[in-house]
Records
---
Amino acid sequence: MARSGIPGALERRHLVEKDLAPAHAQRIADAYLAEDRRLEAVDFLGKVDPADGLQELRAQAVEEGDVFLLRGVAQAMGERPSREEWQALAESASTLGKLRYAEEARRQAERGEG
């Protein structure tokens, strides 16, 4: 692993496919989070305890209007985003000027899909 604790691309791919000890997965996730690489941390947080660290990221995704992060977190948790989450994300994205994300979130809310 790189000095920062973040694996290289090939090593990351192998680690995502492996069963990791929760402590090891948490260390990797923490390294990604320290560099604000939240979407990449999701795969490793899902190996620790999906309900624990992922719930906070899920709320951040909605608050920050981040469609990709919400989808990734929800998938790691084995759930689909709710219509209410999509609507809240659309409002946040619109307020923040993320118009494409707002449009996509509104579309997902109308469909009721994740």
Note: The chain has a mean pLDDT of 90.
---
Amino acid sequence: MEYVKAFVVGGLICVVGQILLQRTKLTPARIVVIFVAAGALLTGVGLYGPLVEWAGAGATVPLTGFGYTLAKGVMETVKESGPIGIFTGGYQAAAGGVGAAILFGYLASVLFEPKSKS
């Protein structure tokens, strides 16, 4: 049942993104920013945490999950270190994921040759 919940929630988040792409004039970059900011905002007001507990990876893998990770990291670091956590918490929480993305992106660029779309 855990997989079904993750699939449904992740799918619904992706459906919202697809609707925004097709029905608005928003660029993909703006939609990415909206999703990350929405994840951080919903975490800040206490709404995204319960969704993550219920849906698991379905809520943490999409872009809103990145915003959740940043906001959660900031909130935890502020509790531990005080106001300096506002500046360091997001970096500490997301460092592993960002580092992995950079590493795997680099490896893909070294191992594979790009081809033109024509």
Note: The radius of gyration is 17 Å.
